[in-house]
């Protein structure tokens, strides 16, 4: 039986997508207020689990169940191009699910449960019968929760010895999960044609490209305004001002994006999203400065 090349497997697992959950896990670690000294046997497996394992699994699952859509939108992808022959895409998705659970055992009960939830969301997002991605509201919410909120909370909990993060950390994780909903929408502008033909109800398909562009921007901005308000209310004015400056820079890029969403979504992702996630780390350090 034909086997895929290493390069095809690497492309299937999409390493470029691993950064957001790894960063969110690191934000959770920082927000806990626990010094990293002596904690690296937990931190490193956690980062591995968030990115190269759980996130990579979600990419493999998505590519397998989206192979017919990708044949229209991205025919060069490993599965529709034939570089991932037979059912190898599915086999790798299942294998990475099992490996993720094995890595999760190094993080104790909380890490294992979080990994199970993240993997469940990954399969529910792409696979029938749920296939949450067919509704852009639900699908992007699942991704935002898994990539940002769940990863943040896991990092904080693991560093605290399995204790549940405090309310401030949970609030920030929730707000950045909501903001990630908008980030996920940015990824949908490149696949409007195939999504429409194959019945995938992304927000650009459901709302139209123009309305979806404004919706994505507002969904990214409003939670960050909530973060600024919280930081100011916690008597952390310099951190609040830093996040505000990052938000203003994003708004400048968003004004450019909404004028031509199809052509400029990738640029907003490349330059605007790093500003948003920088604000995440600023907020995490804000909690650290007050003892987590």
SSE pattern, N- to C-terminal: HHHHHHHHHHHHHH
Shape: globular
**Integer average pLDDT:** 94
Would you report the number of β strands? 0
Task: Provide a quick synopsis of the model.
It contains 14 helices and no strands. It is mainly alpha-helical.
How would you describe this protein?
The protein has 292 residues and is mainly alpha-helical. It has 14 helices and no strands. The protein has helices at residues 6-13, 19-31, 40-65, 67-73, 78-81, 88-104, 108-126, 136-159, 167-186, 192-198, 203-207, 209-233, 237-258, 261-289.
Topology (elements, then pairings):
Blueprint: H1 6-13, H2 19-31, H3 40-65, H4 67-73, H5 78-81, H6 88-104, H7 108-126, H8 136-159, H9 167-186, H10 192-198, H11 203-207, H12 209-233, H13 237-258, H14 261-289
Helix pairs in contact: 2-3, 2-8, 2-14, 3-6, 3-7, 3-8, 4-10, 6-7, 7-8, 8-9, 9-12, 9-14, 12-13, 12-14, 13-14
Could you name the key traits of this structure?
292 residues; mainly alpha; 77% helix
């Amino acid at each position: 039986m034909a086997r895929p090349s290493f390069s095809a497997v690497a492309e299937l697992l999409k390493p470029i997508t691993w950064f957001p959950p790894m960063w969110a896990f690191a934000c959770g670690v920082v927000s806990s207020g626990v010094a990293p000294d002596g904690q690296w046997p937990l931190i490193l497996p956690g980062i591995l689990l968030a990115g190269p394992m759980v996130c990579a699994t979600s990419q493999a699952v998505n590519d397998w169940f989206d192979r017919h859509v990708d044949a229209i939108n991205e025919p060069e992808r490993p599965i529709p191009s034939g570089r991932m022959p037979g059912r190898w895409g599915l086999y790798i998705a299942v294998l990475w699910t099992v490996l993720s659970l094995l890595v999760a055992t190094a993080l104790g009960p909380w890490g294992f449960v979080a990994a199970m939830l993240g993997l469940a969301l990954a399969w529910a997002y792409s696979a029938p019968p749920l296939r949450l991605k067919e509704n852009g509201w639900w699908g992007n919410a699942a991704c935002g929760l898994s990539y940002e909120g769940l990863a943040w909370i896991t990092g904080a909990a693991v560093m605290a010895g399995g204790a549940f993060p405090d309310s401030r950390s949970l609030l920030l994780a929730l707000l950045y999960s909501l903001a990630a909903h908008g980030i996920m929408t940015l990824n949908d502008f490149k696949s409007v044609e195939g999504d429409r033909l194959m019945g995938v109800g992304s927000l650009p398909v459901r709302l139209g490209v123009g309305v979806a562009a404004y919706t994505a921007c507002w969904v990214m901005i409003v939670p960050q305004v909530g973060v600024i308000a919280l930081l100011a209310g916690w008597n952390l004015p310099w951190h609040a001002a830093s996040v505000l400056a990052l938000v203003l820079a994003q708004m400048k890029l968003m004004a450019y994006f909404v004028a031509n969403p199809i052509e400029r979504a990738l640029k907003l992702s490349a330059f605007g999203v790093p500003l948003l996630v920088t604000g995440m780390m600023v907020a995490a350090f804000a909690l650290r400065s007050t003892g987590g």
